[in-house]
Specification:
Layout (H helix, E strand, L loop, with lengths): L2 H14 L16 E6 L4 H8 L7 E6 L10 H11 L5 E7 L9 H10 L4 H9 L4 H4 L6 H13 L10 E6 L6 E5 L9
Parallel strand pairs: 1-2, 1-3, 3-4
Antiparallel strand pairs: 4-5
């Protein structure tokens, strides 16, 4: 049975048995917080438990490395929508120890892309079109510095209100311990 078939089979029972009822909440985060977190599988249940969050408390945006790489990319757009449309009053960037983005090698990744059947000429076309795939796939060397960078990118965004604190944390995926990197209440915002 395929993964999709398993999902659909489970979902049929989930709906028939009304399991969804225990997850019902509004679209507005109770704690008025939006979290940017890594997509690491170890954080799916650990992060909410370590932060004492339940369904409906927060908006969670995930990507590889919890990185805000562009001020006008989809991550920043999601954060701004959470603030302006969904009543989030705070932002928290949560990176984690042993993140795969800290060891990503763009050369090896591009080789894997070619090995999976993407023609080299497509990669070359992107390169000649001015897209630097090595830079685009680049991770980070230091998780705390990466979190600080993402916090600065968010907090200094021209469309983010000055009264929105932006915090930075690093979680240990083995224990759930949170280390404070940036306390958004103590940071002065650039106007």
């Amino acid at each position: 049975m395929s993964i999709l078939d398993e999902i659909l089979q489970h979902n049929k029972l989930f709906v028939e048995e009304r399991e969804y009822e225990k997850y019902q909440t509004s679209k507005f985060p109770e704690k008025k917080l939006v979290i940017l977190s890594c997509m690491d599988t170890r954080l799916v249940e650990l992060l909410p438990q370590a932060m004492n969050l339940k369904n409906g408390d927060v908006k969670i945006v995930k990507n590889a490395g919890a990185i805000v790489s562009h001020p006008f990319g989809s991550i920043m757009r999601s954060i701004l929508v959470a603030v302006y449309e969904l009543n989030a009053d705070e932002v928290c960037v949560v990176g984690h120890r042993e993140c795969g983005m800290s060891s990503i090698n763009s050369e090896q990744l591009l080789k894997k892309i070619v090995d999976r059947g993407v023609p080299q000429d497509k990669i070359d076309t992107l390169k000649y079109s001015g897209i630097n795939l090595h830079k685009w796939f680049r991770g980070f060397d230091d998780v705390e510095e990466s979190v600080r960078h993402s916090v600065e990118m968010v907090s200094n965004h021209p469309l983010l209100p000055a009264d929105i604190p932006v915090h930075g944390l690093v979680i240990d995926p083995a224990t759930g311990q949170l280390d404070l990197v940036v306390n958004g209440y103590e940071v002065e915002k650039n106007s």
